[in-house]
Design a protein that fits this description.
This protein is of the alpha+beta class. The protein has two domains: 189 residues, Alpha-Beta Complex (Penicillin-binding protein 2a (Domain 2)), CATH 3.90.1310; 310 residues, DD-peptidase/beta-lactamase superfamily (Beta-lactamase, 3-Layer(aba) Sandwich), CATH 3.40.710. It is 37% helix and 20% strand. The chain is built from 21 helices and 23 strands. Strands 2, 3, 4, 5 and 10 form a five-stranded mixed beta sheet that branches. Strand 21 and strand 22 form a beta hairpin. Helix 14 runs parallel beside helix 20 and helix 15 packs across helix 18. It starts with a helix and ends in a 15-residue tail after the last helix.
């Protein structure tokens, strides 16, 4: 009997020790984890998505903004797999979305971090109202405000502006340390991609304390979302509209308009194009099929290389005079058929002995066959590289992933294992060899002629940009400028010799692409005496000639740009 109190005491001590050890385990070893679990049950985090910055034209006119929309979400931490079927059925009835679709959305949106999953987007007002009325029976689901990217002009400038779409699970692993959430959208192309960090903004949110019934008791913290910064481009909205209208005359092509002094892009259009609004709500199957079609509407043709044809004769002119083998006033005989080493090469006319300006004006092939042979391929391709061909231009857009092609002697040996021949030199001298030039690269060449010999860096956002002195001889620039002006006054582009425009200078080109129709080019600038605008227009397999297809496109843009800008006596002085 005396042992009974000792036995009971031992039991009490044993239980007390066990309880103490358990408390120590829960509070010391697992304390942080348990406190986090308690907070998860007590605290709700309600994120606030930032509004993306607007994109504006050079005058502050709106090009891209954001619009409000309502999305349906489920909080996976509040809805177990066992609870989901009942909630799914109620949501299907209230919102009017099939249970199978809700299942798929929940399954595809699952994430181990427990972020809310989007079940439906862009809800109609009546859907939002029905949800609000029955919210008490839809615990674990919520309707929240979201922002969708809005492009008020639809496809206008789509290749420049770009588009946004949701981040993927793979991207989230890399972007989460930078503040991105699973619900985030990211710029995929164009300005939206190149200036993502400038435009995206910073997430905010509320920290709410709730009771066991999930009712909000108080706000523990509140951080407003920080909107992204607006971005003003060098684009001119009215000129961009004119470029898009002009391109509608061909099935495929591109236009680049640029300030020749600074490299600021005033318009850049590519056809066919696409409407970036479809990515805000998600493309349909039919839309995806169209985007991946043979015409490649998402391809920015301003960045794609094409045979430059007779526009390359500017490079051959530069090589001829810069090499010292020709002077500013040198003449070369021309003929209908030029024969060399047993082969004959045709020309569209015989113009007698002419110099560089006249050869540019009439686009004489036989003239440039001979110049190319005398100068040689080494000098010819040296000058092509000097003016930026075969190189990226340095524009901000990451979409510029091709530098064209300069198929010189080394290229031919590498690709074909064959030596260079005179045939290669003759064809390259008139831009018909293995040479590919992008419309943007060509715009840099014409800008260099217009501004007195500086190779500019094209850009879409005003910022310090380098320009490189080419060191061209004064006589080279004089011959080029005189010839490009004669192209318009008496040569292949007289359609631009219009009294309603300031004096225009430029060069046509018609590129062969058998068995398909020819390409059409025109590159030029105005006013010829003091240029403020360079324009390159290109029609891919458009058929016709540079003077009949591309030059009218340039005229449409110049009409828009110079509308009302001519002095009263300009018409009388057009011959200057």
């Amino acid at each position: 009997m005396q042992r009974q109190p000792a036995f009971l005491l031992a039991i009490v001590v044993l239980f007390a020790t066990a309880m103490g050890l358990r408390l120590a385990w829960l509070q010391l070893v697992q304390g942080a984890e348990n406190r986090a679990r308690a907070d998860e049950n007590r605290i709700r985090l309600v994120p606030r998505q930032p509004m993306r910055g607007r994109i504006l034209d050079r005058h502050g006119r709106l090009l891209v903004s954001s619009r409000l929309t309502y999305n349906l979400y489920v909080q996976p931490r509040l809805v177990s797999d066992a609870q989901w079927p009942a909630l799914r059925s109620r949501l299907a009835s209230v919102i009017g979305i099939s249970a199978a679709t809700l299942d798929q959305k929940r399954r595809n949106g699952y994430n181990s971090e427990g972020y809310r999953i989007e079940l439906a987007s862009n809800l109609r007002p009546e859907q939002v109202l029905r949800f609000r009325e029955q919210a008490a029976a839809l615990s674990g689901a919520e309707v929240d405000v979201d922002y969708l990217r809005s492009y008020p002009y639809g496809s206008l400038g789509a290749h420049v502006l770009g588009y946004t779409s949701p981040i993927t699970a793979e991207e989230y692993d890399k972007l989460e340390p930078k503040g991105y959430r699973m619900q985030d959208r990211i710029g995929r192309s164009g300005i939206e991609s190149a200036f993502e960090s400038h435009l995206r903004g910073e997430w905010g949110g509320q920290q709410l304390e709730v009771n066991a019934a999930g009712e909000v008791q108080r706000v523990l913290g509140d951080k407003q979302a920080s909107a992204g910064q607006d971005l003003r481009l060098t684009l001119d909205l009215e000129l961009q509209k004119a470029a898009e209208r002009a391109l509608a005359t061909v099935n495929r092509g591109a236009i680049v308009a640029m300030d020749p002094q600074t490299g600021a892009i005033r318009a850049m259009a590519s056809r066919p194009n696409f409407d970036p609004n479809i990515f805000s709500t998600g493309p349909t199957l039919a839309q995806w099929k169209a985007l991946g079609g043979p015409d490649a509407p998402m391809l920015n043709r301003a960045f794609q290389g094409f045979p430059p044809a007779s526009t390359f004769k500017l490079v051959t002119t530069i090589a001829g005079i810069e090499s010292g083998k020709y002077g500013e006033n040198s003449t070369v005989p021309t003929m209908h058929s030029f024969c060399y080493r047993g082969q004959c090469y045709g020309d569209h006319g015989s113009f007698g002995a002419i110099g560089f300006p006249k050869a540019l004006a009439v686009s004489s092939n036989s003239f440039y066959y001979q110049v190319g042979l005398k100068v040689g391929p080494t000098e010819l391709f040296h000058e092509a590289r000097r003016i930026g061909y075969g190189q990226l231009t340095g524009i901000e857009l990451r979409d510029e992933d091709g530098a064209g092609l300069l198929g010189d002697q080394a290229w031919k040996r590498k690709v074909y294992g064959e030596p260079w021949t005179s045939v290669d030199t003759i064809s390259s001298a008139i831009g018909q060899g293995p040479v590919l030039v992008t419309p943007l690269q060509m715009a840099r060449l014409y800008a260099a002629v217009a501004n007195g010999g500086w190779l500019v860096t094209p850009h879409l956002v005003e910022r310090p940009t380098p320009r490189r002195w080419l060191g061209l001889k004064p006589e080279t620039l004089r011959a080029l400028r005189k010839g490009l002006r004669m192209v318009v006054t008496e040569g292949t582009a007289t359609i631009l010799n219009d009294p309603s425009l300031p004096p225009v200078a430029g060069k046509t080109g018609t590129g062969e692409d058998p068995p398909r129709p020819d390409h059409a080019w025109f590159g030029g600038y105005a006013p010829a005496g003091k240029p403020t605008l360079v324009i390159v227009a290109f029609g891919e397999n458009s058929g016709g000639y540079g003077g009949t297809v591309a030059a009218p496109m340039v005229k449409a843009l110049m009409t828009t740009w110079f509308r009302g800008s001519l002095p009263a006596d300009q018409t009388a002085r057009r011959g200057a």
